[in-house]
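Aim 2 progress update. The chain analyzed this quarter is reproduced below.
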Amino acid sequence: MSSGPGLFSDIGRKANDLLTRDYLTDQKLSVSSTSANGVGITSTATKKGGLSSGDVRALYKYNNILVDVKVDTESKIATTLTFTDIVPSTKAITSFKFPDFNSGKVEVQYYHCHANLASAISLNQTPTIDLSATLGTPSFAIGAEAGYEPSSGRFTKYTAGISVNKPEANASIILCDKGDTIKASYIHNLDELKKTAAVGEITRRFSLNENTFTVGGSYAVDNLTMVKGKLNNHGKLGALLQHEIIPKSVVTLSSEMDTKALDKSPKFGLALALKP
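Predicted structure tokens:
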């Protein structure tokens, strides 16, 4: 794929990932392996509260086709097929679930050095069409996204955003929820490997007259250990410690607490990901 401004879904993603990725309040174990025929298999078990669940995921790539199949403990099968460069600079993604035959979706993405487009349609009795476009360069992008339901003749969503991306920083502004919410974020990398960074995000919800301001960051203690933290103006505090115990295998310990309700016990999460 050619370099360009990225898809619309990429706007604001870096800040969001730093504030949300790997934070958890449950227990999770995942084990990955690769079979002799090149199939990557990942088994995951999760315990949240008193409930346990799990799934098995298999990935297989053949030429420009990627097959992703996931089976959970309720015998639901989710399948995603990704076709790359069948037509130059395009990617086609088809996803469906069994036994829910109304969950199908087809998406086509087009990549260009100054414009990226994406179109998706849900395969059910009342299909929804999603369209998004991004114009610009890898350093500056402006885009919009809309969802339309032909059966009712109404827009299900419309969103606009802009981002500025530099090697040491990324800033974005997104107007979403049909114009009801505006979100601005800024992330600044403090090292060349981008493992140590600071981030700030402010969200304004007009209908509720509510503002949420969140600050956070990550710090690489060494090549194997990383700590992250975040705090918002509502008193929600999160912290995370991640350590690579052996190559490619990571243990993550995270916690969350409400600093305005110290009588409540903090929540803890533990995740262990084992890879060959």
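The chain has one domain: 8-274. The helical segments are 13-20. These observations will guide the mutagenesis experiments scheduled for the next reporting period.
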